[in-house]
Amino acid sequence: MKRIILPMLVLGILGGCETMGVDEKQAPVEDRAAQPAPPPTTDPAATSGTSGQALDGKGMGQSDPRKDPANVLSKRSVYFDFDQFVVKDEYRPLVDAHAAYLNSHRGARVVIQGNADERGSREYNLALGQKRAEAVRKALATMGVQESQMEAISFGEEKPRRTGTSEEDHAENRRADIVYGDE
Predict the structure, then answer these.
(1) pTM here?
(2) Which of 8, 80, 68 lies closest to 40 in space, CA to CA?
(3) How many domains does the chain divide into?
(4) Residues of the chain whose pLDDT is less than 70?
């Protein structure tokens, strides 16, 4: 009896599988590419935030505030005095704005890249760049940014923004850059 039932069961299953694709209908696909994008908003309430600037790009038609040159979030560098790694008060609004953005976008990640000018040994400048990156990371953490959203690294003197030897050139290289992972 088992010899008859088992082959019949297998044939029934295989026969059912064979007819599955015969009368299938394809599901309709919605074409969203043909729809025009909504116009950008000019509502000042939609762009309010630190210093009246947008902190999130969630609204319809809003562009990423980090890419708006008029927005504080487009500024990514914190500059330091010679041989120092303390975030100066003049950069607090910048750090606060990035902290607010990161707190409202918990999936966003940043790498804080510490830099130094060419004066000093490579080892010293790597250590100084790390201290500068850590200072910015700690300032962001103080504002509530999750540790998992941040990484602090040092490039030392290896990524100069300016290659001259004037004080202005050196000052431009003494910095920590905030770099978002999705850019």
Answers:
(1) 0.66
(2) 68
(3) 1
(4) 1-62
